[in-house]
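Sequence in, structure out.
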Amino acid sequence: IAGLGLAVAVGLAAWMLAGEDSDRRVVWGVAAAIVVAAGLLMVSALRPGRSNRAQAVDVEPWLSYIDQKMYMTWAGPTSPLAAIEELGDTMNFRGDHGLIQRSASPAQRLADGTTFRVRSPAAPAAVFDGLEGSYVIADEPGAGKSVWLWKTLGALVGRPGTTPLLIEAYHWAYFRDPVRSWRGFVASRLQADEIGADPNTAALIAADPRLVVLLDGLDELYDLEDTGPDEAAALLAAIEAANPQRLVMTSRPDEYEALVGDREGQRFSGVAHSVRLEAWTDDQVRAHLQAHHDSRTRQLLADIDTTPALAAKERTPLWLAVATDVYTASPTN
């Protein structure tokens, strides 16, 4: 505003000094104003330290805000995790099992790195702390991958030096930055309505080592019509190029193996470990239904005993919760 005022003042002065010729007054006045305005803009742009001041953003309040925003969205009282837990103990993998077992069978190895099988009641925080670097939770539909990720987020909220940020992988398909880097993608999600950071602040937060990205649903990006596999491969390439210190991903195993398998002789090295969630045994399913539900689930138990396909489905938490809900509401149908 001050620069504009100065330009106007100089223009008026030039206009008064231009004599009686009105045309010359106009030309001199406008020319002088333009020259002054351009000079002020150049001085402002070249002023030493300007770019440093623009980047001097305190990210601490933003990290605290992200921490609480993620908790309320994914793990708080009104979150999907809270809704799932209202179904009872089904999603908690009840049973007296060990925390992490190293897979003994080569057939159970998944892509690169070491494969672990995680059993209940393994705390997601303990898995996060027990595995160095990044890892992928790769298991079948309904095994509890997203729920495990939400519980990981809930465990990391409030932890000093760690700020979790959950990103759904399908957003990558709509990220159209010319470079399409991993850090740029994270920054774009920080600028979205959920967080609302400005571009400069988002870039600083995305580069902060305290930010831990939880990337949910790589397989859902893979399944997008036409371009899904290429988009998922591009996302993995961006992750590999950035090599983040910590990253947790979820995916179905077939899609993940297809992506990280043989890419022109190269193997994806973006994660160090693969985690499988241990399925329930038939005995655990029966014990759970008998212990936590009333006589209305007897028909479900009977159908599990006589229908192998149903029994196979009920070994995953999602299908067990759905079937319990359906049979409880309508046990004879």
